Records
---
Amino acid sequence: MKKIILSVVAVLSFLTASQAQGWFRQPTPNDTLRSTVILPDNSVVFQIYAPKAESVAVTGDLPWNNPVKFVKEGNGVWKGRLADMKDGVYRYRFLVDGISVYDPKAPEAGETSALLTIDPDEDGFFAMKNVPHGAVAERYYWSETLGQMRRLHVWTPAGYEKSEDCLPVLYLVHGGGDTDKSWPSVGAAGLILDNLMAEGKMQPMVVVMPNGTIEVPGGDMMAEVPLFAKDMITSIIPFVEDNYRVYADQKHRAMAGLSMGGMETLEVVLNNPEMFSYVWVLSSSFAPGNQDVYEYERIRLKKESDRYNRNFKQLVFTQGGPSDIAYNNCKQTLALFDEAAINYEYMDVSGGHSWEAWRQNLYELAQRIFK
């Protein structure tokens, strides 16, 4: 019998080809709208873009004796002001034509979605089973590179708290537009790792899921790659090794990333091969369509081939088959590795450029590293 579980979790869906078409739509006031604006007198202006709505209100932990009156402006933005707010933290939702709506412009809105889990046999590799479960912790660290507090998630295996053993570390990165909440939620990383540990199929390890998404001027996603790579070396790895009982040497470090996270993984490990023994690149490549980057990498790979072959115990590229939107770009990237005589493995799984493929990738790689 099919088991269908509907739950609300934090997750930002990956960028698909159909979504990419949205880049070419006509701009709207919603693109730059701030849904809440706190004024100097501690009053708050609530704003939501709802051009076809007949009524808008706001509800939540707000003063009931001071209802917010909304007015619709000509550009389709509804505005309402709430005066004399005290310092604090408040939950709120918009009511659009009587329907409760989570603020689509809230900072955490992109991480909030309903998650549908379908497990046909109730015993799949990412199913919730009656086994010892580890912990997924939300942690904050100071990024020297970005000059701000940043968040990451860390999975530790069942029993880690009572153990005195040091463990190896896998750094596992999400794709473009996602956040560090993606692997623990839609990626089902905790469940996959819990089940593998219970079945004795993987070595105990700590899995760190950092946030590879960085806001950059102009929204240039490729500009995020070197920034994240620097943050990994200068802040993320030192934070993990200072706060977790882990080994701090090359043979006990692995890194894997999907899509944009695969580009970030390549950026990190190719510049620091002496720091990692295991590297998995999932549905990714060098910067697609950028011939200058490919020529630079061609030269670098030839120059550093012996260094990479000497340091990487595993260098694995995977894709979701020919339907993966990164498929051709990856093949072009692998041609450069072939030309430089760099050792690597390649494999296809089902699913295209989707979490179906990447959950399979994690299931496979977790069983193979640190052995």
---
Amino acid sequence: MTPVQLSLPKFRERLPWRGGDLQTARNALTRDHAELDAWPGTRICFAAANGDQLSGVLHKVAARETPLVVLIHGLTGCEDSAHVRASARRLLESGFDVFRFNLRGAGPSRADCRSMYHAGRSDDLRLALDGLVSAGHGRAGIFAMGYSLGANLMLKYLGAAGKSTMISRAVAVSAPIDLAAASTRLEAQRNRGYHRWLLDRMKSDWQGGPLDIAPEQIDALQSAATIREFDNGVVAPLNGFADATDYYARNSARQFLTRITVPTLVLHADNDPWIPVDSYRALFGLPATVRVEIARGGGHVGFHGREGRWHDEAALLLFRAA
């Protein structure tokens, strides 16, 4: 196993984005939209066994072979999430090919999917990787970077795949490695605004296209007052889990970390308002391949630093490492 030995820069907040909430909200408040026109994208689709069509956008920096970085968005996100586009631009500028992957039913793939992604649907990442490799992409290596729910899914894939993984280096940003703890934190009174915003977007995404769903799940979807109720009445039964508790227990990434065999950087902020830092501080027995870095500040998928987005700079250090 290759240990992760990097000298990471210290995270320093970029003014005026001070504190976990402003760091978290900046992506939405500023409506940043990183331009990628210099690297025209090509849409690539993948057919799932049930007929769902997943998709993403591939950007190549040049005709020469260079490592391909797969970017995996978070809950209610897609290929055009602000943090995905910002990372894509930084990576492309640095000489890496990029694939902005939409999880099942997200963004442009919504109209072509009758089922939806969830925090542990890591087989869809395997489907995309198989498709990319079969099409001849990533011959110089495949790296991955996941954000929030997408980071949990990516870590689960890495641990479950073990030595058979098609990803050779990975970065997880603000992953809810304990899904139950994250759900509880989001329901806290201080997160009431975040929680309502996420739940409304979840309901909108699910109802934004075709669904193979029973009437009782439609009722549960529309009536859910919390994300846990949504997971309990919709996500869990549609994906073979007994309830939300079972869904969280079987898909939380923390139990897969010890089985990861490739260099993996797991980044988190001590003031993330959505994901409790205690979930990270409780980790033990990790392999040398997994490095957990808890920054002082940064919020949830924020890390807006004085020298740029800290998680992007940390990722570049790992991806460039010999």
